[in-house]
Amino acid sequence: MFKSNSAGKSKTGLLCGTVLAISVFAASAAAAEKITELKHSVYVGGLFLGSIDTEIGEENNNYRIESVANTSKAFDWAFKWIAKGKTVGLIDRDKISPFLHRHESTWNKNARSATMNYDPSGAVTVETTGKVSSDPNKYTTIDPASLTNSIDPMSAMLLVSNRLEAGQGCNAEVPVFDGRRRYDVKLTEKDSRLFKPSRYSVFAGEAIGCKIEIVKKGGFKKGQDNYDRMNQEIVVWAAAPVAGARVVPVRMQITTDFGGMELHLAKYHEGPIQLVSKNSK
Questions:
Q1: Could you tell me which residues come within 8 angstroms of residue 160 by beta carbon, excluding any fewer than 6 positions away?
Q2: Labelling 159: which of 25, 55, 165, 269 has CA 20 to 30 A away?
Q3: End-to-end CA distance of the chain
Q4: What is the pLDDT of residues 192-223, one digit of tens each?
Q5: In whole angstroms, how far apart are CA 268 and each of 96, 140, 206?
Q6: What is the rounded CA–CA span in Å between residue 182 and residue 139?
């Protein structure tokens, strides 16, 4: 069952949502409770844009991911964005099965949300809130059948991260539904890259590159490619920040309407491991 009261999003909001998803590209199955806290800082044109705080919890093959992203107060004069996401589900060997996913965001004064529930058959039920388009034909149609066995963006990144943890590489194609858009995320492994020490990041060393491509299926604005700015090559670099840590996103660089955007791993906390970058905010 697919019910939606809103569709589409500005390219900038979509990009922010993608960054939020990327921030949880980071967990693997564990037999005992394991909690990892991450903080990613985002810079645009050299200016601090905002941060993404993520907590990943796993116990007895159950996983929970919670994330909060917000822009710096220095940008309030131009725009203000905050987003919260939560996913809970089950990890069964190589399969990721979400039970519930919810995200809500506010762009300036425009609020919207999506809540998705999954049953064991793979069917998805979604409820959305937010501004409704006055033109029902403005967006491409979503085939209800394509939602079956799709997963949310957070779970998709968890799936890829598990592959990296298992040494399987990031080559994969994952069916994703974010509550408004249905698309496939195609990932291709790139050559590793060596990062030098930086005051922006807790990571220095060799990282695995995963190229991200979006294959649109439905829910996108007609006559306009919502991913125009994302047709550039997007590579997320992932690595364990220190020995014994999880493989997490450590760097991303892309071009936006506001200039070059960089994402850095600014903090990492898991058990006795506590890392903080010199420039962490």
A1: 25, 170, 172, 174, 187, 210
A2: 269
A3: 42
A4: 999 999 999 999 999 999 999 999 999 998 87
A5: 24, 40, 17
A6: 12
CA separation for the pair 145, 143 (Å, rounded): 5
Q: Round to whole Å and give the CA distance between 72 and 49.
A: 5
Contact 213, 188 (CB under 8 A): yes
Cα–Cα distance, 259 to 31 (Å, whole number): 43
Neighbour-count burial of 228, counting CB atoms closer than 10 A to its CB (0-12 exposed, 13-18 middle, 19+ buried): exposed
Are 260 and 44 within 8 A, CB to CB? yes
| Cross-strand pairs, 231 | none
Pull the structure tokens for residue 25: 């590209």
In contact, 114 and 186? CB cutoff 8 Å = no
Residues 6+ apart with CB under 8 A from 249: 22, 23, 25, 26, 40, 236, 237, 238, 263, 265
User: Cα–Cα distances in Å, from 198 out to 123, 204, 278?
Assistant: 45, 7, 8
Q: How many CB atoms lie within 10 A of CB 23?
A: 28
Alpha-carbon distance 175 to 184, whole Å?
4
Q: What is the DSSP letter of 242?
A: S
Angle formed by the axes of helices 153-165 and 11-22, nearest 10°: 40
Rounded CA separation 110/95 (Å): 36
In degrees and rounded to multiples of 5, residue 109 shows phi and psi of -110, 5
> Are the beta carbons of 5 and 140 closer than 8 angstroms?
no
Residue 12: band (very low, low, confident or very high) from pLDDT cuts 50, 70, 90: very low
What pTM was estimated for this model as a whole? 0.82
